[in-house]
């Protein structure tokens, strides 16, 4: 009896702020997503080590989340908006992690502006996870999938960006745009190779993204985007592969075509001067230890480029829908260019990763679905870890191929 009383009391306290806000003319919406996957990953190790396989029943891609959408009508088409969102992982009891957290204003005439921790235009506006139907799952193209830009600084399709201003324009004659600006010229915001959202830093390191999209009526869309991660003083002073850090830039071009039950979408990305907390590492990698479980790691960063080097990635997805089922065949390729120091001595070899994914999605309803499929990532060349010497020549360790089977269930509320 006492337990029931305590539960009711806590529930009442949590509900009071929402009721109070609603009574004041605001709209507060609780939303979320719960998902779980059974995944099996086989890692083809180098010749000096045996292959291994790992299985898990969890949510290692980070699909599950819950949050609050808050909106107040200010009149004359103007509204105040806010979002508070946390992610969690089913299967292993990992505590909530911060996702989006921002406050802003919106108008039907001039668009929407957000202040805080947001998603980048390269994640949800111009390509990225907006064209990958398996984003945030074991079958995603980011990170271990290796064919979509997903740096650890959050500017790609794998994370969130701190200290940000985000503007989304309304649509005019099919055209719309998005701007991200990160005014973080401070040592307190110094980027870290291991920390998500790590942009900014002392030395004029104010970062930005620009994206433009055009919707072709009854046909699809095309988009173009540009991203600039300005190197901080600390990054410029750091030497990797015989080079000092420099400003990282990304060009992206892509689109989607919808013809009845068929959909074809893709994008091409070119990255210059991959920073050690940017394109040279990746975030959002769905590996089977990704939920914080102890034990053997299946982490890979197949979309990463060589530090202070260039490279390019392309991704293509084909989908066919019949009834409640959607069949998906997708994949692509990433190329990390070789890097030499100022004296012309090779520091990092060229590396490529190829992805082929065959999968399906079945929707019981608009909110509940099951999905599953197979992904093969083949890595050729070498990666900038564990150097060895063969006949006087430096050879970098091979990043192993991986094969992933996955089946999952998802419910939105």
Distance between the termini: 30 Å
What share of the residues does DSSP label as strand, in percent?
over 45%
Query: What is the average of the pLDDT values?
Result: 86
Largest sheet: 16 strands, antiparallel, barrel
**What would the CATH topology of one domain be?**
Porin
Oligomeric state of the chains? Answer: single chain
Q: What ranges have pLDDT less than 50 throughout 5 or more consecutive residues?
A: 1-16, 383-397
Supply Rg: 22 Å
Structural account:
The radius of gyration is 22 Å and the shape is globular. It is built from three helices and 23 strands. The strands form four sheets. A 16-stranded antiparallel barrel has the order 1-3-4-5-6-7-8-9-10-13-14-15-16-19-20-23. A hairpin with a 6-residue loop joins strand 7 and strand 8 (175-182). By secondary structure, it is mostly beta strands. It has a domain at 64-286 and 299-354: Porin.
């Amino acid at each position: 009896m006492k337990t029931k009383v305590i539960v009711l009391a806590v529930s009442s306290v949590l509900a009071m702020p929402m009721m109070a806000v609603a009574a004041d003319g605001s709209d507060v919406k609780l939303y979320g997503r719960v998902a779980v996957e059974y995944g099996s990953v086989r890692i083809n190790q180098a010749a000096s080590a045996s292959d291994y396989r790992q299985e898990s029943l969890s949510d290692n891609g980070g699909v599950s989340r819950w949050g609050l959408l808050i909106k107040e009508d200010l009149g004359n088409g103007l509204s105040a908006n806010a979002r508070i969102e946390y992610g969690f992982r089913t299967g292993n009891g990992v505590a909530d992690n911060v996702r989006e957290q921002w406050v802003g204003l919106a108008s039907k005439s001039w668009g929407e502006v957000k202040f805080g921790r947001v998603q980048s235009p390269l994640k949800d506006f111009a390509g990225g996870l907006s064209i990958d139907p398996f984003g945030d799952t074991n079958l995603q193209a980011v990170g271990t999938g290796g064919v979509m830009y997903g740096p650890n600084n959050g500017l790609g399709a794998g994370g969130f960006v701190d200290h940000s201003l985000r503007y989304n324009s309304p649509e005019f004659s099919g055209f719309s745009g998005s701007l991200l600006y990160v005014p973080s010229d401070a040592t307190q915001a110094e980027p870290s190779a291991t920390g998500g959202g790590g942009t900014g830093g002392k030395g004029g390191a104010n970062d930005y993204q620009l994206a433009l999209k055009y919707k072709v009526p009854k046909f699809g869309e095309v988009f173009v985007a540009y991203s600039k991660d300005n190197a901080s003083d600390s990054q410029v002073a750091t030497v990797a592969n015989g080079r000092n850090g420099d400003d990282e830039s990304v060009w992206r071009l892509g689109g989607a075509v919808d013809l009845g039950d068929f959909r074809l979408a893709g994008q091409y990305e070119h990255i210059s001067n991959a920073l050690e907390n940017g394109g040279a590492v990746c975030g959002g990698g769905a590996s089977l230890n990704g939920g914080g479980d102890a034990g053997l790691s299946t982490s890979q960063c197949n979309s990463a480029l060589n530090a202070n080097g260039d490279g390019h990635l392309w991704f293509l997805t084909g989908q066919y829908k019949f009834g409640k089922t959607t069949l998906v065949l997708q994949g692509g390729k990433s190329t990390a260019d070789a890097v030499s120091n100022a004296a012309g001595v090779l520091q990092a070899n060229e590396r490529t990763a190829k992805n082929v994914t065959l999968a399906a999605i079945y929707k019981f309803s608009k909110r509940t679905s099951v999905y599953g499929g197979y992904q093969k990532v083949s890595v050729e060349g070498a990666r900038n870890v564990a150097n060895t010497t063969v006949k006087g020549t430096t050879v970098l360790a091979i990043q192993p191929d991986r094969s992933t089977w996955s089946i999952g269930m998802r419910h939105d509320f």
